[in-house]
Amino acid sequence: TPVKTQLQLLTLTLPDVETVGIIYNSGEANSVTIREFAKEACDALGLKLIDITGSTTVEMVASLNAQIKDVDAIYIGTDNTAASSIESISKVALRENIAIVAADIDIARSGGLIGFGFNYYQIGRATGQLVVEILKGALPSELETKILGQDSLILFVNTDIAEEIGVEIPQSVLDLANLIVTDGVETER
């Protein structure tokens, strides 16, 4: 997950942000790793990072409610608990006019202002090509390692959320977006 780029998009879109709340389950190893990357990125960008943790939806939302006044924006990585809690998280964020930036497009679709993450369809196609080679008799150790290109990442922007929380999305961000939601309709570009 390109955590630094996600947080750069946050600062480009919300230049007055000083404090970012990261919502995650500290019991998920992947989420702890993303939190470490987020801390490094926030330090480099001059942002303060606040941990908002919980191991269940109830705990996570309670933690968010307790700390929502301390953050200017919310960042959600690829966290399973946050993903299953996103509707409740987004209600709290919208109530306080706080933007959510997500590392997963499906999380962003459920209440995020911006999502920047992997195109799992494209990754699945590339994986399928490797499987075909194996089924044709190639040994996995003989297959070339591939680095996915820019088409493996998607930028999602929800202009409806922007309007609801009083944020103007810079044209430079809109120009880069692959998916834009306007008036409840998601358009692919």
Summarize the model shown.
The protein is α/β, with parallel strands linked by helices and 189 residues long. The longest helix is centred in the first third of the chain and has 17 residues.
Properties at a glance:
189 residues; alpha/beta; 2 domains; 8-stranded mixed sheet; 8 helices
Description:
The structure is a single chain. The chain is an alpha/beta fold and about 190 residues long. About 45% of the residues lie in helices and about 20% in strands. It contains 8 helices and 8 strands, in the order αβαβαβαβαβαβααββ. Helix 3 runs parallel beside helix 4. The radius of gyration is 18 Å and the shape is globular.
Task: Extract low-pLDDT stretches.
Answer: none
Strand order of the largest sheet: 2-1-3-4-5-6-7-8
Radius of gyration: 18 Å
Q: pLDDT average, as an integer?
A: 91
The counted number of beta strands is 8
What distance lies between the first and last C-alpha atoms, to the nearest angstrom?
Answer: 22 Å
What is the share of helical residues? 40-55%
Give helix and strand order, one letter per element, not per position. Answer: HEHEHEHEHEHEHHEE
**Major sheet attributes:** 8 strands, mixed
Q: Could you say what the CATH architecture of the largest domain is?
A: 3-Layer(aba) Sandwich
CATH third-level topology of the largest domain: Rossmann fold
Overall domain count? 2
Determine and state the CATH class of the largest domain.
Alpha Beta
Helix-strand category: alpha/beta
* Count of alpha/pi helices: 8
- How big a fraction of the residues is strand? 15-25%
**Shape field:** globular
Name given to the CATH homologous superfamily of the largest domain: Response regulator
